[in-house]
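Handout, page 2. Input:
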Amino acid sequence: MIETVTPETDDRAQPPVAEAYDAIVIGGGPAGSAAAAALAEAGKSVLLLERQPAGRFHVGESLIPETYWSLKRLGLIDRLNEVGFVKKYSVQFVSSTGKESAPFYFDEDDDGRVIEKEGSQTWQVERGKFDRMLLERAEELGAVVRTDAHVLDVLWDGEPLDADGKPNAEARAAGVKVKFGKGDAAFTREIQSEVLLDATGQTAFIGRRLGVMEADPHLKKGTLWSYWENAERSPEDPREDGCTVIIQGENKKSWFWYIPLGDGITSVGCTGDMSHMFGPHRSSTTETYESEIAAAPGIARRLKNATRVRDVFTTKDFSYYSGVGAGNGWMVIGDAFGFIDPVYSSGVFLALDSGLRGASAAIAALDSGDTSAATLGAWQPEYKKGVENFRKLVYAFYDEGFSIGGFLRDYPQFKMGIVDVLVGNVFRPELDEMFEYMPQSRRETATA
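Output:
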């Protein structure tokens, strides 16, 4: 069953904290843990600050194959296999009428031949266990990790905002003011750093304080999700048993994720426009969730003999980005940099990738003594191009006349381009040609 860690059950010992560090990372999710691990492995003194217990409940269980290389870089492949997470070899799409595409296998070439290559298989993970594994790896490599830390403010050399309320390019982040512990035992400290990495996810700690967060006007969605036991699976074929299925809802007004997890549990989420999911015509989140399932044959048949075993959860999947990604002495990584609609399961991949890219830039900056915005943000332009390729395919997905199957019938030469995006190989300039043929992907896109 889905594991949950609460403050009441977290007995983790909290280590002592020094007065100053080479780097402070705010946030202990995948981006923050990856960055802290890489910095510590490079011999830098690192403090990771997280306000929640390690292993808390989180949605976003499906990993795309390119996460493999980040996880290998962190030395976690054997550990992932030992934990026994469900292995994922493919993704499949189902139309609103229940018509199913053939699975897109990650280990096949353009002619459908199986290729034995490293990184062509990934995992469906229980995020509590997965995130705790990453956090523990950062600690093993030498990072000081506190999970009782509420960061109150950034310590700035100079005013962070100018007279017009815009970010001051001359200001420098010099550390944080943080509250440790709870209740009568709580205390507040100011801790210095050469580099500050904001990995606070959708909280976007620095970006929101500087007023640089921008929403994507085309991707304002809401999600309902829960967990099911005994949902339809394909145990006779391990290459299909772990398949992520993306299923269109009635009239393409919503879509479902269908993610097989361990112990016979399946994660099932439904995403649609905010007005559709939470409008005044809706009575309750549970009734909305159940009615969306009933109206979509592709999901209804898969849950015919299943039992829902958790409450229905909600979240607002507003896609956004930070208009400023780095400054003197600081940078943003992971969801603090930007968030994209979850339809292609890009979240953990982008978190890990940006965390490691950010760490590499911070290491170079610390080694050279140049912690300017230009040095700390040098990795971000290339990263943004990859993020835009995900965004373009998301835009196409929401176009009423678009389907991946139909697109490939018209343009079979782009099959491997579609697979490249689905696996996370999004930093290839060759993808530009494919997107020229897609509706909505030509829409003016965001810049992060």
